Amino acid sequence: MNDVRRHGMRGAHHRLRLLFLLAVGLALTACGGGSGGTSATTGATPGPAGAAAPTSKPLTKVIFQAGYQPQANLPFVAAYVAKDKGYFAEEGLDVEIQHSSGQDAHLALLAAGRIQFSTAVASTILKQRASSNVPLQAIALFGQRGDTVFAVAADSPIKSPKDFEGKTVGYKVFPSPEYLGMLKAAGVDRSKITEVAVGFDPRILMERKVDVLPVFRSNEPDTLRSLGFEVRTFDPADYGVPTLGVTYVVNSEWAARNEPLVVAFLRATMRAVAWIQDHREEAIDVVMRYAPQQQRPHQRYMLDVELEAAQSDLTRRYGIGWMEERQWQALHDALVEFKAIDRPTDVKQAFTTRYLAQVYKDGKLITGP
After folding, report:
1. From the centroid of its chain, how far is CA 235?
2. Closest by alpha carbon to 266, among 311, 319, 306?
3. Which of 193, 178, 191 is nearest to 233 (CA)?
4. Per-residue b/e over 173-185, b at no fewer than 16 CB within 10 Å?
5. What distance lies between CA 72 and its chain's CA centroid?
6. pLDDT, position 127
7. Beta-bridge partner residues of 151
8. Are strands 194-197 and 213-216 parallel, antiparallel or unpaired?
9. Positive or negative CA dihedral for 302, 305, 307, 310?
10. Average pLDDT, rounded, for the chain
């Protein structure tokens, strides 16, 4: 998952796949054009039609392709609501909402100019810039903390990461930088831990085959509880580990040429976030039109958790989505330390608040185009 998560760190095969997809996207662009609005892409999942434009003024078509299937991830919901309530139209945008076919195809399409807006976790942006210099750039940070936490059974004797010693810890693909950073911060002797690859089915924790399991904070804890298995979680950020979550991401070259469109997109979606905070059940009504196969209570859990993760002292001062260089630099340095990226990269190129600064004033939304 970006993204969603599905948002984990991937290896060399991941980078090769993105480069292949990018090459395909560039070929498609050469055939079909790559500026402004674009046609639908293979594997994309369109959502229901949004509110009609309140004015006869021509709208500029752009594509937002969410980095995963339809669900209540906050940046997805913000786009759903902005379209449904006509916020995009009021900003002069005709936004086509799509969903990625997976395998980071949305990032290749973004780099190739086939779509204009998408989602990606901060670590993925840094990894892609470091490995292949793909011009991905975050324009709003929703995850002020990372997506991954570490779950144990509610009745487990484990009370801190130090208690991981002598236990079995599962990992999905390979031990993540968040995990390694938490062990270091808590003074854990990793040689005393049994680490096993377990894939993505969280029921392995229910079956007591592992004592600790990495999970996405807005997903598996609720899934396990719905199956009657209560859990507790450990958040690496609570131990001083630099972690960041999902962002809105653009092709920086396209964005620099189309600044008014980027600002308009952010103004509409940040307005939607403000509405969502006070109308959560109504927001889930909108989500369910995009994701009728999903369980409504789980979608509400996901939204609540992600709204909480989007808040920090920084966002309370400057507005939802805000970010600073120190956050990105700390994450970057952790990724370098634990060899999660190939080489150092310039974090100043990986994110910008240039556009968001035109959406907020003193932490309050500026309304009107």
Report:
1. 17
2. 319
3. 178
4. eebbbbbbbbbbe
5. 12
6. 96
7. 213, 233
8. unpaired
9. negative
10. 89
Q: CA 120 to CA 289: how far, in whole Å? A: 23
- Return d(Cα 261, Cα 264) in angstroms, integer: 5
CA distance 319 to 122: 18
Residue 360 CB-half CA count within 13 A: 21
Alpha-carbon distance of 307 to 52, in angstroms, equals 28
User: What are the tens digits of pLDDT across the range 168-198?
Assistant: 999 999 999 999 999 999 999 999 999 999 9
Which tokens is 244 given? 């960041």
- Taking the alpha carbons at both ends of the chain, their separation in whole angstroms is 32
Query: What is the model's pLDDT at position 13?
Result: 42
Cite the beta strand spans of 111-245 per DSSP E.
117-121, 136-141, 148-153, 168-171, 194-197, 213-216, 231-234
Q: Which two tokens stand for residue 113?
A: 């100019």
- Residue of 176, 147, 183 lying closest to 162 (CA atoms): 183
Higher pLDDT among residues 358 and 55, named by residue:
358
Write down all domains in the chain, each with its CATH number in brackets. 12-145+244-365 (3.40.190.10), 148-239 (3.40.190.10)
- Return d(Cα 44, Cα 180) in angstroms, integer: 35
